[in-house]
Structure to design on (381 residues):
């Protein structure tokens, strides 16, 4: 028993059978099961009312594909957080307000993303709303403190204040759009979102001031896994901008969540490395479009993203998704090593993440095989 407790401590679990760990585990399972079971109902309703992406030159789908998956992901995430809150209320008032600010900002972006999915919104309007969501975090004390970033010079308060606000807006808006731009192949964002959430969860568990972050990340990871069960190629539903905004914004915001101001800048190290894939993808796409003379690089979609390049080489959406999951996991391992996370916790995270991803992919493929077997006899008769 003592060795088991010692192993749990490597993961940041103070009491393996305590209320805190059990509430985090229940949060993850609630989000997973709720999202997994809720998506078929959302899909059925979306088909009836016409919430779907139509086939075009950029999309892989050959028929209308429901794009309301983001609503189901958000519902699973929100339900799980409410359950966690009921089991173990956050007692620190400042953190309580910050969690509410994150949930409010996420709600706003999910709504805007969903409206854009169905009716279309201008890039400028979406950018303004994303900036508003970032400001919502800033006024509630969630921001990047430039003077807390390692290896950077300490600046006077008159310079540090405005610079910290600018960095926070760039961090939130940039990561929100980076994740959204990666959503081009079945399973990629769902899997990368799950990997990033799990890596950041284990990393946050190493700090006593990040209990609220652990809960939010557990809910986000569970919702991602529940969604992925229906999104592994061939997808039955996609998350749309609503879901991509939720992942990007929440991961960016949760990385700033805590009670120790000194850790708010240093804590960006792991998210930067973990989210290196979408960040590098967006960077190379924007630079490439600007080099081609495109004045609005975010408003002119093309097929120069990393997932498009990998897909062109593999000719398989499934292999593309798995490759990018592994790249994201490798980035996560590097980030955890840089943060000083204990090796047993890193190895345990890798094993759990791989098992979960294998399980949902296997279940999806198995369900497709059963569907094909059921259709074949009817065709033969």
């Amino acid at each position: 028993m003592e060795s088991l407790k010692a192993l749990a401590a490597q993961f940041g679990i103070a009491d393996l059978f305590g209320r805190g760990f059990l509430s985090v585990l229940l949060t993850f399972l609630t989000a997973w099961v709720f999202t997994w079971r809720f998506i078929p109902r959302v899909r059925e309703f979306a088909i009836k009312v016409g919430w779907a992406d139509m086939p075009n030159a950029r999309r892989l789908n050959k028929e209308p594909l429901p794009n309301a998956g983001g609503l189901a992901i958000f519902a699973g995430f929100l339900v799980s957080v409410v359950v966690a809150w009921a089991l173990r209320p956050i007692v620190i008032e400042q953190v309580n307000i910050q969690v509410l600010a994150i949930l409010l900002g996420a709600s706003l972006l999910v709504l805007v993303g969903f409206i854009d999915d169905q009716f279309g919104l201008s890039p400028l309007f979406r950018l303004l709303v994303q900036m508003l969501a970032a400001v919502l975090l800033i006024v509630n004390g969630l921001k990047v403190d430039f003077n807390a970033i390692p290896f950077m010079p300490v600046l006077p308060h008159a310079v540090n204040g405005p610079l910290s606000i600018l960095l926070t807006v760039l961090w939130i808006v940039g990561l929100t759009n980076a994740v959204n731009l990666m959503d081009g192949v079945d399973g990629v964002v769902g899997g990368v979102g799950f990997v990033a959430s799990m890596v950041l969860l284990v990393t946050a568990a190493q700090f006593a001031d990040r209990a609220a972050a652990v809960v939010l990340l557990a809910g986000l990871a569970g919702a991602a896994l529940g969604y992925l069960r229906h999104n592994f190629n061939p997808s039955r539903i996609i998350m749309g901008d609503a879901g991509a905004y939720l992942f990007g914004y929440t991961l960016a915001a949760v990385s700033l969540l805590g009670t120790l101001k000194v850790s708010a800048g240093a804590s960006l190290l792991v998210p930067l490395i973990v989210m290196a894939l979408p960040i590098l993808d967006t960077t190379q796409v924007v630079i490439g479009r600007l080099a081609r003379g495109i004045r609005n690089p975010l408003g002119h979609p093309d097929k120069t993203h990393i997932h498009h390049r990998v897909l062109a080489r593999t000719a398989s959406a499934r292999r593309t998704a798995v490759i990018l999951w592994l790249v994201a996991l490798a980035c996560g391992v590097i980030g955890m090593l840089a943060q000083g996370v204990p090796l047993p916790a890193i190895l345990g995270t890798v094993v759990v993440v791989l098992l979960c991803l294998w399980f949902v992919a296997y279940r999806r493929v198995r369900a497709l095989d059963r569907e094909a077997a059921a259709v074949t006899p009817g065709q033969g008769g």
